[in-house]
Amino acid sequence: MEITDPKFPYQLIVEQTRNRALESLRPGQVLRARVVSPTREGQASLRVAGSELLARTNVALEAGDKLLLKVIRPADPLQLQLIRDRPNDNSVANAMRVALPRETPVSALMNQLRSLVAERPLTPPASTPPERGETSGQPRIAVAPLVSESALPPLRGTPHTPTSRALEGGPPPSPPSLFHSPGTASISKAIEGVLGQQINGAEALSPEQLRRAFLASGLFFESTLATQGTLANDLKGSLLQLLLQLRTHLDGGTPPGAATGNRNDGPQQSSTNPLQGLLSELVSRTEGALARVLLNQLASLPQAESSTQHWHFDLPLANNERLDYFRVKIAGETGRESQQTDSRWTVAIEFELEPLGPVKANLVLRGNEISSFFTAERPEGAQRIKRAMPLLNQAFQRAGLTVGRLVASEGKVEIRPVAPYPLLDEKA
Q1: Does the pLDDT at position 33 exceed 50?
Q2: What does the pLDDT read at residue 260?
Q3: For an engineered disulfide with 221, which of 236, 279, 320, 366 has Cβ 3.0 to 4.6 Å away?
């Protein structure tokens, strides 16, 4: 019998049992379990349905812990999902009500930061100019492992391409002169950290890049902090660092790069100092981007009444002089109430690229068979996708997949907010 945790990469392998209650389980049924003995040397004892079972696990369980287990697959093998304590639906919906009006696309902030980075200072700081292909303080994506190797194969290959490679003209210029004073070096570093989360759209994306981008999307920021005790170098962590530095300089009373003497307090300072206005705007954009990541996290919480796990995240792609982003939703489901034994995975992607226009794509993988459905708002966009279908068919076949349906059509593409919970209080 296998017990899986939907949010953390932990598994409990339980010895076989002939307990009649366990043999008559149905998908979706919720069981209560109690830890009899804590985890020692990778083993723990659980009491489930009146039987004491020995489990091999890397989960830190303590005697007396109470667990909720949901049946995903009743046999061959028995698969249970560990339902961890989570906020109730009301608290999650309340959090979404607060975040939804504040959220703005992460791309809006990144585009503004890119424009700041693109402005070379009139008098750059004294330093040795880097060689072509080399940078000084060049932003990179350095993703710390966010999940255990027990759930995912070891990452191999090269790290993320430096952000500068997504921009034309060689290495990226330094941030503008207003961020070159000694007091604002922390802001420049924080900006590099956020821009380091971009993906180079000029190169073909590899599975490893997409995998790293998913892990660095901010979904696992708190779980990494809880399990590893260190801040993850992901999108949410980078945004929090930038917000901290911006607020420190904005609320500190001394504008970055300004002298500390004869300071003017009050609203006149912000109205006469354009830098204060820029910092305030960046704070607002950063808070909106964080609200967006929070909405993705809330929408990705496991729901007790569903056997499907959802992940919502955004992929920022740097393409020449612009930044595009893809809204991605992944859903994985196993052990449905029907007799279907194959796992079912769906991926929904929303994006808007020129000259395609708004596009929504849905990919469905059931067992080894994959189907894809594209809807483009512009007629010319739909035609372009149709002409590319043979290439997509060949790519699926090279990956060893059986191709089902490949459909491209014209239609309205509606970008809906991420809100799996009701946002209206029907009792109000």
Answers
A1: yes
A2: 45
A3: 236
Question: Do 209 and 114 belong to one domain?
Answer: yes
Give me the domain span that covers residue 38. Answer: 2-83
Over residues 143-195, the pLDDT tens digits come to 232 233 333 333 333 333 333 333 333 444 344 455 656 667 889 899 999 99
CATH of the domain at 405: 3.30.750
Look at residue 424 and tell me whether its pLDDT is greater than 60: no
My answer on whether 318 and 289 are in the same domain is no
Q: How far apart are the C-alpha atoms of 358 and 372, rounded to whole Å?
A: 17
**Which element (helix H / strand E) includes 70?**
strand 66-73
Q: Collapsing DSSP states into helix, strand and coil, what is residue 285?
A: helix
Percent above pLDDT 70 for the chain: 61
Do the beta carbons of residue 249 and residue 256 sit within 8 Å? yes
**Are 349 and 372 members of one domain?**
yes
**Whether residue 54 is found in the same domain as residue 110:** no
Regarding whether 220 and 96 lie in a shared domain, the answer is: yes
Q: Could you tell me the CATH number of the domain that includes residue 72?
A: 2.40.50
Contact 421, 89 (CB under 8 A): yes
Q: In what order do the strands lie in the sheet with 402-410?
A: 199-200, 308-319, 322-333, 344-353, 357-366, 369-376, 402-410
pLDDT band at 280 (very low <50, low <70, confident <90, very high): very high
Q: Assess whether 153 and 237 both reside in one domain.
A: yes
What is the dihedral sign for C-alpha 12, 13, 17, 21? positive
Contacts within 8 Å (CB) and 24+ apart, 24-29: 25/71, 25/74, 25/78, 26/71, 26/74, 26/337, 27/71, 27/72, 27/73, 27/74, 27/307, 27/335, 27/336, 27/337, 28/70, 28/71, 28/307, 28/337, 29/70, 29/71
Query: Does this model's pTM top 0.70?
Result: no
Reported as a pLDDT band with limits 50, 70 and 90, residue 116 is confident
pLDDT in tens, 357-377: 999 999 999 989 999 999 999
Three-class secondary structure of residue 385 per DSSP: helix
Q: Please, is 3 exposed, middle or buried when counting C-beta atoms within 10 Å of its C-beta (0-12, 13-18, 19+)?
A: buried
365 occurs within a structural domain: yes
Same domain, 200 and 293: yes
Domain total of the chain: 3
Tell whether 223 and 111 lie within a shared domain.
Answer: yes
Rg (CA), the chain: 25
366 domain residue, yes or no = yes
